[in-house]
Amino acid sequence: MALKKKILAVVVSLLLVVLGSTAVYGFNVFSQLSSGSQLDESNLSVNDLLSGDIVNIALFGIDGRSDVDGDRSDTIMIASVNFKTGDVKITSIMRDLLVQIPAGTSNDTTYEKINAAYSYGGAQEAIKTINQNFDLNISDYVVVNFDCLVDTVDTLGGIDINIQNEDVLYWTNQYIMDVNDKTKHSDPFLEATGTQHLTGVQALAYCRNRYSDDDYGRTQRQREVVEQIFNKATKADLLTTINLLGKIYPYITTSLSLQEMTTYIQGYMSLENKTYENNRVPFDQYNSTADINGVSYVVPSTLRDNAIALHQLIYGSDESYTPSSLVDQISSRISSMAGGNLTNYTPSTSSGSSTSTGTGSGSSSSSSSGTSGSSSTYDSSGSSSGSGSSSSSYNSGGGSSSGY
What we know:
This protein is of the alpha+beta class. The protein is 38% helix and 24% strand. It has an eleven-stranded mixed β-sheet with strand order 1-10-7-2-3-4-11-17-18-15-16, with helices on both faces.
């Protein structure tokens, strides 16, 4: 899972755990969250046939840099909360996934990368796109500006990261200059390879480095950083956690009302057994890439198979689901566009998987292996297991890159 996808997971986890355990402060923070644009639910293609016990909410991550044109949703996720079991499942959708973007106020129906939907019509168009391509029932959203990474790492007192080689060191330092300029900081360069204690600026630069190797190396660095953030955040004392929440809430906007947010949090916190799991669409077994008219895409192979797997993930294998005729039509069209240009996705053996466990005393243990998958889990006892899901980031939309 890429950097911004996991930061969203950290944000969701903190909101669920901290706000539920510090109720008075939590309500004050809720009241200060920025209210996003309200959605026209009649024009979201909501699937009304799905279980009401599970709430699906769209999560979007946008680039906070002022020199990047447009509002790109470089991170798109679905948070699925089961209010019967306490299961929270965060499913990331790769930003370069080829989908049908339905006609909106500023665009005709088109087939392109899914992150273009947000630039066409904001959350309204992006949610309608997700619902139509996957037969879902999303009607609310949360948007996070990822400038919050710097404050997050600094509030946690920094993180320890292994700088693998001289190329990584050199390019990370180049990015430190850029991040310092954009965030008005003056953090120093890193001076050596090996394990280093990174500030927020240094951690963001390490994640943004895209020139020392390849995109798989970059996404591995991103996962490493966010794993360290998650481990420290889940073991932080109450004062640090409250301080952290106070730092991140200005970066969040949502369509959810105060009443809806407090109802969801109270309902979730009342459950005894809570689990957390993250996944990725397209799933490994239904994931390909293709060059179409000179543009690289992540191609679902097929969209129909991915929709079925996603419903099984969210609602359980016992839930009966047959894709709608619209999903079948979109799936056939995507397969036709890709033609014989498909390259099957092979998980990188170097991307690594990790398992970490923590206790209330603040101790932790972790293990890694050279395999890759598309999900990891975290339960309320403080233990987690991860498979280090991989994702490839090509150019967004019409071929431009956000720089992350």
